[in-house]
Amino acid sequence: MSVIYVLLTISIIVAICFFAAFIIALKKGQFDDSYTPSVRMLFEDELIKENTKKSILTKKD
């Protein structure tokens, strides 16, 4: 029965550590920009195609 108390205590300590890390990351602004990455994913292929076309044109010239 004492093992359950030890495991419960350790799990609560780990949960508090993860919560504290989340709060610190939140205060530092890590989660501020949530729109740009989702839009960047949609247009990334076009940017890569344009860059390869430009590099192909410069290599041929």
Describe this protein's structure.
The chain has 61 residues and is mainly alpha-helical. The protein contains two helices and no strands. 0% of the residues are buried.
Q: What structural keywords apply?
A:
61 residues, mainly alpha, elongated
Which structural category do the helix and sheet elements fall into? mainly alpha
Determine the oligomeric state from the structure: single chain
Number of DSSP strand runs: 0
Q: What's the structural domain tally?
A: 1
- The secondary-structure element order is HH
Give helix % range: over 70%
- CA-based shape: elongated
DSSP strand content: under 5%
Largest sheet: none
Instruction: Indicate the low-confidence ranges by residue numbers.
Output: none
The radius of gyration over CA amounts to 24 Å
Overall mean confidence score, pLDDT: 79
Cα distance spanning the termini? 78 Å
How many helices? 2
InterPro entries: Cyt_oxidase_maturation_cbb3 (IPR004714)
Transmembrane segments: 6-26
Keywords: Membrane, Transmembrane, Transmembrane helix
Protein name: Cbb3-type cytochrome oxidase assembly protein CcoS
In a few lines, what is going on in this structure?
It holds the Pfam family FixS. By secondary structure, the chain is an all-alpha fold.
